[in-house]
Amino acid sequence: MPHSPRPLAVTLQVVSIVLFTFIGYLNIGIPLAVLPGYVHNDLGFSAVVAGLVISVQYLATLLSRPTASRIIDNHGSKKAVMYGLAGCGLSGVFMLACAFLTHLPWLSLACLLVGRLVLGSAESLVGSGAIGWGIGRVGAENTAKVISWNGIASYGALAIGAPLGVLMVKGLGLWSMGISIILLCALGLLLAWPKQAAPIVSGVRLPFLRVLGKVFPHGSGLALGSIGFGTIATFITLYYASRGWANAALTLSLFGASFISARLLFGNLINRLGGFRVAIACLSVETLGLLMLWLAPSAELALAGAALSGFGFSLVFPALGVEAVNQVSAANRGAAVGAYSLFIDLSLGVTGPLVGAVAAGFGFASMFLFAAAAAACGLVLSLYLYHQASSSRHARDL
């Protein structure tokens, strides 16, 4: 019998691949907290334009998912990751040009927008490519582990990158962000070059829209669960200010710490219990956490609600992702990952204006009731999908 690798060896191999996701998302995180202020205060554009500079990256990621998926399935996930890292480096070049053109606001803004478009396209290659590369190296039976660690790498990089970018700009100037992004991507390419590629799986390639249709129910559950994350990340500081509470940043830190802890501690439950069962449990916990935020009479209970929300949301992506990837053959795995990931891009893209409208009409606390209702809908959908999958297995066994 072939010797199966030990869990630690599998984990180390997965971590060595998702390292490239960490590098890619560090490049996304570094300018995240700096650019709105730079566009509004230094270049003199409106807050709407400042918001556009951030959101245009998510739009580029959303639109580039189909192309990224084709590259992963047809040319290999390693090449996709390397193309993505090169794209991140190119965005650093535009960032550097933007810094030296501050005295020409429109030209500086144009460089910034082009760089953000390039970065968004690169994100879809690096994130989905690393998942495909990891699954190809450690086997489809470890899909949940790959997706979980990839998420830890991306969220951890964003958490580190944002304050790091602020410190660099304060100490050295805006140009330092461009240089650091270029150097990080060069390091990533050097590390990726000698690593073994995952084999390209032969087989019939389904059109992206066909794959999208297959993962649509699972992606819809992910999108509904992601509204809570988007609401907390975008509006928690305004919510705290409306209540006169301090330390809103601690809420985000606690949300992130709970998110990562849950993935580290309970990621293996997906293989043992199945994706749908884990998603049902997680969405239940997330709904409860968001309801706590809605009803919180004090900052301490709001902190507890944020921690519970982060804990619950943590495994929604990998749990439903495992079930989504299982809907297609191995030859279409890259397309499935890309199509599924598209739903979180879409959810985070619409959460800002949608939840902002709810807050404007009904007050800041109502945002969390809305997010809890969305998570509850995701829970009901996951229960339905679990019932359907159980019925199908039972019919096959007869």
From TrEMBL:
Gene Ontology cellular component list: plasma membrane
Keyword set includes Thylakoid: no
Keywords noted in UniProt: Cell inner membrane, Cell membrane, Membrane, Transmembrane, Transmembrane helix, Transport
Segments passing through the bilayer: 12-37, 43-63, 83-107, 113-135, 147-168, 174-194, 215-239, 245-266, 278-296, 302-325, 337-362, 368-386
Cellular localization per UniProt: Cell inner membrane; Cell membrane
Domain of life of the organism encoding this protein: Bacteria
Record has Transmembrane as a keyword: yes
Domain Major facilitator superfamily (MFS) profile: 166-398
Membrane topology, from the record: Multi-pass membrane protein
GO terms, molecular function: transmembrane transporter activity
Matches recorded under InterPro entries: MFS, MFS_dom, MFS_trans_sf, MFS_Transporters, MFS_YhhS-like
Predominant place of localization: membrane
Family membership: Belongs to the major facilitator superfamily. YhhS family.
PANTHER family reported for this sequence: MAJOR FACILITATOR SUPERFAMILY MFS_1 (PTHR23517:SF13), RESISTANCE PROTEIN MDTM, PUTATIVE-RELATED-RELATED (PTHR23517)
Protein name: Uncharacterized MFS-type transporter JV551A3_V1_1870125
